[in-house]
Amino acid sequence: MGACANPPLYANRKVARPYHVLICDDQPDVRHALHLMLKGHGYTTESVASPGEALAAARSGAFDLMLLDLNYTRDTTSGEEGLNVLDSLEKQGNSTPVVVMTAWGSIDLAVEAMRRGACDFIQKPWDNARALAVVRKQAESEVRRRTELEIAASVQQKLFPHAGPALTTIDYAGHCAAAQSISGDYYDFLDLAPHRVGFVLADVSGKGVPAALLMANLQACIRTQSAAGISNLTDCLHQANRHFYDSSTADRFATLFFGIYHDETRRLRYVNCGHCPPILLRASGALEILDSTATVLGAFTSWTCEEAEVELAPGDTLLLYSDGVTEAENPNGEEFGTDRLIAMLRHPRPAFALVQDIAAAVSEFSAGSRSDDVTAVAIRAH
Q1: DSSP letter string over 317-340?
Q2: Residue 194: which residues within 8 A CB-CB, separation 6 or more?
Q3: Do 140 and 8 meet the contact criterion of CB atoms below 8 Å apart?
Q4: Is the preceding omega at residue 125 within 30 degrees of 0, hence cis?
Q5: pLDDT at res. 183
Q6: Which of 92, 168, 310, 330 is deepest in the core (most CB within 10 A)?
Q7: CA 249, 253, 258 angle in degrees (round to 5)?
Q8: CA distance 51 to 86
Q9: What pLDDT, in 10s, does the model give residues 152-210?
Q10: Which ranges in the chain belong to alpha helices (H)?
């Protein structure tokens, strides 16, 4: 983008592509005027006329900026319709910056809009220079943010295991689809000793960069202890709890499932730290739930846990998953839920195919919108 402190508008710069702006306003003449103004300075635009269309278009993630009117045909003064759109955008995991527009602008309304996620506002009738300055500033910030997130996402992907040690009695696989480029979930396969593998799936509270940094911190802590030969689950997680507590603020915590599988005995020792209870589907069709044996990590200095154990017989399938799977919502507000997950488990397939199919099913169910990370680890006994 160059080193200028205040670079000129797009038409005077060389960039990889023009900035793409979504315009949402119920008045055709307003949409047309904004399109002409932005087109004249090198931007591309798409226009929609209603809050519902704005939410649908935002789900594509194709825009560098959204210009959102706060008042529509049902209401012309309070801005409530536009404020509701901001709430819905946050709920569906929108990360594109939003600049709100209103002909009834006030400081209170602008403050409320930015409290709900808007990054700036334009008052109608707008001054072209002021409007273009706002659009340029926010669009350029978004492009820089996405570039940085792409780098961070690439680094994070390298932290996920792409393979684990081969065992004779099980096959296993994991998959993580981040809600916002980078994830606060993580899974890991730990090569602990001959014939033993550790399975970890964790979900750090919050989203975005802060959650991803804490995730990497927690993963490094558990990997370091595993590399040092610590195979006692209780000791390892006590250390992890202390480290996470010391490394984070009071409002941060992590749910985590940590199990160690012994290939020779077919037994899995585990601790479930407040995480979604894994589902064990027996070859007979019976279901078992691996409930919590400890509270979440990082919330308390005084922390205790208990180990539990389960045997994996030939034909059994164990699924670890994050709440982003079962709590994913469709456009009608219905959750994906555990029943759909169990139904997928009842159709036998390799572990790799199962986790990929779960991610695809959740994405289709939620119409491509994710407000939380979707992570799953499948273990199939044979």
Answers
A1: EEEEE-HHHHT-B-TTS-B-HHHH
A2: none
A3: no
A4: yes
A5: 67
A6: 92
A7: 145
A8: 10
A9: 566 656 667 877 889 999 999 999 887 766 667 889 999 988 899 999 999 988 777 77
A10: 28-39, 51-58, 80-91, 107-115, 128-159, 208-227, 233-247, 323-326, 337-345, 351-365
- Residue recorded with tokens 């273009």: 132
Average pLDDT, the chain: 86
Q: How far does Cα 230 stand from its chain's mean position?
A: 31
Structure tokens at 85: 């759109």
Per-residue tokens: 255: 């749910």
Amino acid (1-letter code) at residue 195: H
Q: Give residue 148's pLDDT.
A: 61
Residue 144 is predicted with a pLDDT of: 75
Quote the tokens at residue 359.
């991610």
Joined together, the tokens standing for residue 143 give 């492009």
Domain 160-381: CATH class, spelled out: alpha beta
Residue ranges covered by each domain of the chain: 10-151, 160-381
* C-alpha–C-alpha distance, residues 276 and 377, integer Å: 12
Question: What single letter denotes the amino acid at residue 227?
Answer: A
Q: How confident is the model over 66-115, as pLDDT tens digits?
A: 999 988 865 566 778 889 999 999 888 788 899 998 876 567 787 888 88
pTM above 0.70, yes or no: no
CA separation for the pair 140, 63 (Å, rounded): 12
- Cβ atoms of residues 173 and 377 within 8 Å: yes
